[in-house]
Fold these 3 entries.
Entry 1:
Amino acid sequence: MQALEKKPEVLISGKTSFKLEVPYKLVETGRKNGKKPLILYLHGFGDNLKSFEARCDSMLTLNAFHLFIQGPYPLYSRSRSKPVSEWGRAWYLYDGNKQQFIKSLEISAEILQEVVDNLIKLIDVSRICIFGYSMGGYLAGYFALTRWKHITDLIVINARIKTEIVNQSSWTNLKHLNVLALHGIRDDKVNVEPQQKAVDHLQKNGISSKIELLDTGHGLDDIYFKKSKDWLIEKGYKS
């Protein structure tokens, strides 16, 4: 009888980091002197910096700094008809596991924070708004709730604000936040009810927040930009 083969011995097992390039672009509109708001735009799944900047063109009528950042995870194009720079991007990796979701959100939030921290040393910012659509909306909500010292205004479109990440003792740190949730009643990708409950939870904890339900679907229609601009102007932004 042959002797059992000895299994190979694992000497070392570990992990190492893998660097990804995350492009960003800062645009200034309006008068060049004095402080002005910074608006950070987070695209949805499959978009990229260039395409989302074009979609958000109407927001550039606001007197502000406009920061567009691209998600770190490339979406492989099987058609091979596009260069890598034009591939769509994603903000996080999600497999249905809650802890994996939070871990991946945190990694992307750290990327955003690094960019914002470096830029606010160079520009005169009065307040910061984060504008997130769909996948970018999930990250926008997470960033605002975990980096509350940075954010004054939060706009989340067709996503859900993950209020469950906030410890009960931490709600007092968020009292300065202004939150607008916009959601299409015909959204077939993200259910509106969980977002309604999230906004209710924010309100119960003293956060100035509201949800507007729009007669449209998941796509980023012009009405979302109009509602966003009107709300920001109400909050003191200049057009």
Note: Residues 179 and 222 are 20 Å apart (CA to CA).
Entry 2:
Amino acid sequence: MKSLLKIALFLYFTLITVLQSFAAVKVSPTLIELNANKGNGNYLTTSFSIQADKNETIRYKLYPEYFTITDRGKMHSEPVSANQDNLIPHARFVPNEFTLKNGIPQLVRVTFTDLKSLPDGESRMVMFIEDVAAKEIILPNKNKNVNTRLVVKTRLGIPIYIDKGRFVKTGTFNDLTVDKENGNLVYKMKLSSQGNSKVRYRGKAQIIKDKTLIREFNMNSNTIRADGIFEETGKLPENLETGNYILKVILTYKNEKGENKNLIKEVPFNITNSI
């Protein structure tokens, strides 16, 4: 059993090292958000750059996909979609295939046309950047009679959003609870977006006892899809003393006017000797 564990750990750390060696691709920006109401005419133009390590020569191809956001804030991409908020039929990008070498960055220009036909609110797509050829790596193995091969293919995605017409970004804090699961205290949070454009928030949580701040920690930043919900479960800090507490969560997002808005909710909970 110990031998199997050692082999598993060896392969795990070897894999991490290999993947880190292929992570030297820089993309800027990593997210593009555009406002069609601020553009002139019926089109918008944007760009992003891609740069590889000086010692690498890699050929990449570009292709877009439509995507939605799940209740957990994750991206779910779809190669084909007939949804009206799909930006792909409006997108033109140059180049769609290129070679990176000598650490020289490649600029990709993206133009969106016929914006008037888009619905009010948010439209989106993700631009994927992918190796043309997969890399095959032979992992080191103490057993000379066994070869372990790993096929690595890099794919990076840049989400692109366009807000157009009358769009609204309104967040709501629906529920916050503290429960005990498997001997751990966890918080469960439910948020919603009431508008036709996503809400992206950041924030912090505070643990208060007898009106005194005991702990403070950052919450994960996430995205609530337009007219959708978001749910998150996370662990509370450990080693809290017995007693009565309040969990206060303070989240901040920007509305359609660029103004900061707060979502605040608090809930009492208790620590007993049995926790």
Note: The chain has a mean pLDDT of 88.
Entry 3:
Amino acid sequence: MKFSIKNILKKSSENSRAFTLVEMIVSITIFAMIIIMAFSAMGNIGILRNSVTNRLDLNNELYSVTEKFVNLIKTGGDINYEEYWNRQAVGTTTSSGHYAVFSGFGNYGSGGASANYGDGLYYCISGNGPKMGTRGCLTGFNTYASDVSLHPQRYGQYRQQFIDYNSNANADGGDENADGNIRGDDDDEDLGMGPSAFTGGVGMKELYLIKKWTQSERIYFRWIIQTDPNGPPNALCEMSGINMGSGNCLGNIQMLKLIGKDLGLSHSWSMPSVGKYDGIIDTWECHPDYNCTGANNLSAWIDTEWVNIFPPWINVKNVDFFLYPEKDFRYAWKESDPAILLNSYVRIHMTIGLAWEKRKKIKGPAADMTIATTVNLSK
């Protein structure tokens, strides 16, 4: 074999071309992998950016709306013990997030459908011998001589649970001077002790406030759960008890305002009514800013009367109102529990997330947020 310069250069050239081809294939492969990884990373950055953006949007919106909600509570007044007593009597079964049974807002009374709004106030009286005690007279020791739980309670009925109109427990049934009226006699006693309007430490789905310095304006807040109109097709909102269920649910907080009037037990502007213009508020109409459909401008307790507080893209998944103290200190003045003398306040526990209006625009699960805050209530 002859080794010429020509042959050596030829071999070297062939080897160089072969090596360069392999190198190019490897380089193209590596470059392709880098491009794929880069695009994947950019895609993930986009997803992460959307997630972070939505989280920031949720935080910002939550802050502003929560501030609005808290301010509404702060300016709403104090605990409305009368309405909580009413609610405790008629029941606390829930449906669609809030309470299922209409309480009547203090416009209705026990004893049947007299004048379509029930009777007036009932009064507490000890029996001929047995004393009524200090737990009120909802289930006995009253002028009905029967259990009036599950009946709506007139506004002012909670106050009456602290007064015994037959405190000497004799046979006159409270009519000490035999004038046909059990009130205003020597045997009337303000006990200074009575029942709680609600059970402390138990989260409630509705918040009732009243401006006590005017006694003429009340504000209600309630949780409501409905089917999300932007959810997946055929998806249902399934609930269990009072908690947000699975599926296509959308929760919100709603409010309603009432104005106090002195129109008597029949709540009529034009017709005679017992107690009309006697200086005592007995009628709770809807505030002019609210579209109420009941007779005499009273609430008919339908959803269209209530106003949503949170925007539609926020999903209020759960809310609980914890109120303190359980009794109105003005009535329970004789009780020794120092907690009754505390300034009233409400603790709010709320879990929120994104409604489908926002959720369908992002990939991956949407994180929920839970807030807990305490609001001191004004007198």
Note: The longest strand covers residues 249-261.
